[in-house]
Design a protein that fits this description.
This protein is mainly α and 187 residues long. The chain has a single domain (24-106, 116-175), classed as Up-down Bundle (Hypothetical Protein Ta1238, Chain: A), CATH 1.20.1200.10. The chain is built from five helices and two strands. The protein has helices at 30-51, 55-75, 92-109, 122-145, 154-175; strands at 16-18, 24-26. A two-stranded antiparallel sheet has the order 1-2.
């Protein structure tokens, strides 16, 4: 567990930051953008929790937040450095947990009748925002993977997580007695 005794160091004032392992990269590099999007996603999940989601979802979201720290560490470490440094990484079990979550929540919310407009309760609306940030993080990771190697389960995890967040938003609205608003393609 890292212990931070000082928050600022000044080492990033030149526009670079250090990855796990010590290599310095530009703060606007695709790798930093990717784990920055993951960090933004994690913050929005915290916002969703603070707005008051169903207790069952709160527990799930806190677990996902912790897993997103694994994902951030995974992205902040070059693949060649993972052989020397033991860091948490995204594993198959993380992806499977999301798939089980999606299946379980889908049993409650049922099949989609049409596209759902984002919104509903404050918690559901925050989950929809988190879903869109998750899709951006996924795109950032795909872009990074075209230039550098990343963990093999990073993109699958984010893909499942975006789906899970969509189902969680539907579940939150249903549990709070909020009706879904469907897209009116004729309006």
């Amino acid at each position: 567990m890292p212990r931070l005794t000082r928050i600022y160091t000044g080492k990033g004032d030149d526009g670079e930051t250090a990855l796990v392992g010590g290599r310095r990269v530009a703060k606007d590099s695709p790798r930093v953008a990717a784990y920055g999007s993951v960090d933004e996603l994690n913050s929005h999940l915290g916002l969703a929790i603070s707005l008051g989601v169903l207790p069952e979802l709160e527990s799930m979201l806190k677990t996902i937040q912790n897993t997103l720290f694994h994902l951030g560490a995974d992205l902040a470490t070059l693949e060649e450095d993972k052989k020397k440094i033991s860091i948490p990484q995204i594993e198959r079990r993380h992806v499977e947990t999301l798939e089980q979550l999606i299946d379980r929540l889908n049993e409650t919310v049922g099949p989609l009748e049409n596209f759902v407009l984002p919104g509903g309760s404050p918690g559901a609306a925050a989950l929809h925002i988190a879903r869109t940030i998750c899709r951006r993080a996924e795109r950032d990771c795909v872009k990074l993977s075209r230039q550098e190697r990343i963990g093999p389960l990073v993109v699958p995890y984010l893909n499942r997580l975006a789906d899970a967040l969509f189902v969680m938003a539907r579940f939150e609205n249903r549990g709070g007695g909020r009706s879904e608003v469907y897209w009116n393609s004729r309006a």
